[in-house]
Specification:
Length: about 280
C-alpha cells in the first residue's frame, strides 16, 4: 500500500507575502477531501523564523476534520513547539527536521546535531506521553550545499542512532535541495529498510520537472512505500542551486502509482479541485 503525505506547510513556508489565513483554511480543507494519509499542515516554530506560518493555531481551529480519513502532522524545531503541538487532539504526528549537515542544523534549529539528539529524546518522550507519533526528517540526506563532510553512510548511521537510542520508528529521508541521484536514493533505502525493519521509512524528495520520475522509481524499487509531495511542486528549499527545484509534485506521484495500479483511494475530483484552488492561493510558479 502506498502512503501519501501532502505538504502544504512546506509549500507555503518560504513564500514572502503573507497568505491570508482564510485562504490557507480553504486550501487545506480542500486537501482533506482528497484522501491523503497525512496532511503536513503547519508548524509550531518561531514567528520570526517562519512568519508565513504564524497563524497555524487559527488554521487548525477551522479545519474540517470530522469527515476526513487524513491525519495531521505539524513540524516543530524544539521542545517548546512539541509541547504545544502535543496539546492538540487533532494532531497525530509531530515532525522534527534533523539535518546531517551540522551547518544546516544550526541554521534551521539553532542547535548542533548532538544537541538536537537531546531535543529529539525529549520530544519523543512528549509524544509517547501524549499518544502522538514522532516523525524525523533526515534533511540533507542526499547531499548538501555546504562544506560539511557528506556521505550516505552518515545518514545511515544517524538513522540507526535515532532508532536504537531513542526508539524513533518513523523516518523520512529528505532530498532537501534536490540534488539526490537515483543511485544514492537506492543505496539509502536498500541499506536502511532491511537493517531497521521496525522503522517506517519515507521519501521527502525535491526535484526538477525532468527528474521526478527517476527519483520515485528509485525509491519505490528500493522498498520505499511512503512518499511526500506538494501539489504542483510548490515550495522547496531556497538553498537549491536550480530555481526549478521544488517539492515533488503530488499529482505526479498519484499518476505514477495509478499507472502501476498501486494508487490508494484518491478522490480524483477532489484532487482536481484542490489543484484549482492551489493556483489561486499560490503565486505564479
Amino acid at each position: 500500500m502506498i502512503h501519501l503525505t501532502e505538504c502544504p506547510r512546506d509549500a507555503m513556508q518560504g513564500i514572502t507575502h503573507f497568505i491570508p489565513t482564510q485562504e490557507k483554511i480553504r486550501y487545506i480543507n480542500s486537501l482533506l477531501k482528497v484522501g491523503f494519509n497525512v496532511i503536513d499542515f503547519g508548524s509550531f516554530v518561531s514567528e520570526k523564523v517562519i512568519p508565513q506560518l504564524r497563524d497555524t493555531r487559527q488554521v487548525l481551529e477551522q479545519l474540517e476534520l470530522s469527515a476526513t480519513r487524513s491525519r495531521l502532522l505539524a513540524i516543530v524545531a524544539n521542545v517548546r513547539g512539541a509541547q504545544e503541538a502535543c496539546g492538540y487532539d487533532a494532531i497525530q504526528y509531530v515532525g522534527f527536521p534533523f539535518s546531517i549537515s551540522e551547518t544546516f542544523q544550526l541554521r534551521n534549529t539553532n542547535a548542533t546535531m548532538e544537541q538536537s539528539l537531546l531535543r529529539v529524546e525529549e520530544i519523543q518522550q512528549l509524544c509517547v506521553t501524549n499518544k502522538k507519533e514522532l516523525v524525523i526528517y533526515i534533511s540533507m540526506a542526499m547531499g548538501n550545499p555546504y562544506n560539511d563532510i557528506w556521505h550516505p553512510d552518515i545518514a545511515t548511521n544517524w538513522c540507526h542512532r535515532l532508532h536504537t537510542e531513542l526508539g524513533v520508528k518513523k523516518i523520512a529521508l529528505s532530498d532537501t535541495i534536490g540534488v539526490g541521484q537515483p543511485e544514492i536514493i537506492a543505496q539509502l533505502f536498500t541499506t536502511l529498510i532491511p537493517s531497521l525493519p521496525q522503522v517506517e521509512f519515507g521519501a521527502h524528495l525535491h526535484t526538477t520537472p525532468d527528474t521526478w520520475r527517476k527519483k520515485i522509481e528509485s525509491a519505490y524499487s528500493s522498498g520505499c512505500r511512503k512518499f511526500d509531495g506538494a501539489l504542483r511542486g510548490y515550495g522547496g528549499c531556497p538553498m537549491a542551486a536550480d530555481e526549478l527545484t521544488g517539492n515533488m509534485p503530488t499529482e505526479n506521484i498519484v499518476a505514477y502509482f495509478s499507472e502501476m495500479n498501486l494508487s490508494r483511494n484518491i478522490n480524483q475530483d477532489a484532487l482536481n479541485e484542490a489543484m484549482r484552488i492551489a493556483q489561486e492561493v499560490f503565486p505564479v510558479h
